Task: structure prediction
Amino acid sequence: MNGRHLGALFSDPGLLGQINAMADYRVQPYAGKTVLIRSSGLVRWEPLLFRAWRRVVAADSPELVVRGLHGSMFEKANVDELSEVLRSCLEGDLVRVEVSS
Result:
């Protein structure tokens, strides 16, 4: 889990604040431009994790995959790939990046 212990997650005030804020939040569909950036480490969980996102974004929204798990895509070994994908999104030159985990 990116070097963290599961017990520490449940005592993290930032994480607990996010969970409490989301408790009553209901996502509304969004018709604007979006890009779903997925992490390769969650491919096995994809049907469960991304179904809700696909219901709220436009059907033709591109989906890109970057190496790592949700948190580890920000670590030194993976952040260059993530920044390349984000740069291509911002420049409007979407490149479909698929990597193996």
